[in-house]
From TrEMBL:
Top enzyme category: hydrolase
Primary location recorded for the protein, binned into one broad class: membrane
Known catalytic reactions: Release of signal peptides from bacterial membrane prolipoproteins. Hydrolyzes -Xaa-Yaa-Zaa-|-(S,diacylglyceryl)Cys-, in which Xaa is hydrophobic (preferably Leu), and Yaa (Ala or Ser) and Zaa (Gly or Ala) have small, neutral side chains
Cross-referenced InterPro entries: Peptidase_A8
Protein name: Lipoprotein signal peptidase
Species, as recorded: Kocuria soli
Topology of this chain in the membrane: Multi-pass membrane protein
GO biological process: proteolysis
Record's GO cellular component terms: plasma membrane
Pathways involved: Protein modification; lipoprotein biosynthesis (signal peptide cleavage)
């Protein structure tokens, strides 16, 4: 075996590990989201509110045809298309990822996007206008779900990584004055 071949093989295994890690984070977010929605649908009536921490945190079961704060209720199909494009874009980008923080960030966004996309495709009133199950209500804020949490936290982490110069390939931007991130 030529010595130069070993690093290439090692890089291939590492790339597969990052892809699988992202898919594992995504699958966890997706499963938690879908299981929590099924639980809410089976244990609550539409419109029902259950206090969790007084009136500061409640479970409030609604079906949301729009986006955040129920915006765009008449254009549900647009959100379906956006979530599909985001999901495909992340999957296409995954082979370039060589950073654990990017694995987590992209996995959170992908799992959340797929969770809400599933609702848009399979829930009432049907493809591609299905309504998203929302149930987490924080006082003076919107009603949302775990998929929304994954997307928001993931995008926040991506913004942080970009602002601090951490590239998805494991390097740092030239402006940060640092070299390799080392996959962490």
């Amino acid at each position: 075996m030529i010595p130069a071949e070993q690093p290439a093989a090692s890089r291939g295994r590492a790339a597969t590990g990052y892809v699988l890690g992202t898919l594992a984070v995504s699958a966890l977010v997706y499963a938690l989201d879908q299981c929590s929605k099924m639980f809410v649908e089976r244990s609550m009536q539409l419109g029902e509110t259950v206090p969790v921490l007084g009136d500061w945190l409640q479970w409030h079961y609604i079906l949301n045809p729009g986006a955040a704060f129920s915006m765009g209720e008449d254009h549900t199909w647009i959100f379906t298309a956006i979530m599909a494009v985001v999901s495909v874009g992340i999957l296409a980008f995954l082979p370039k990822v060589r950073s654990r923080p990017w694995v987590v960030a992209l996995g959170l966004v992908l799992g959340g996007a797929l969770g809400n996309l599933t609702d848009r495709l399979l829930r009432w009133p049907g493809f591609p206008n299905g309504h998203v199950v929302d149930f987490i209500h924080v006082k003076h804020f919107a009603v949302f779900n775990l998929a929304d949490c994954g997307v928001v936290v993931g995008i926040g982490l991506i913004a942080f990584l970009l602002l601090t110069g951490r590239e998805a390939d494991g390097t740092r931007s030239a402006g940060t004055g640092r070299g390799q991130e080392g996959g962490g």
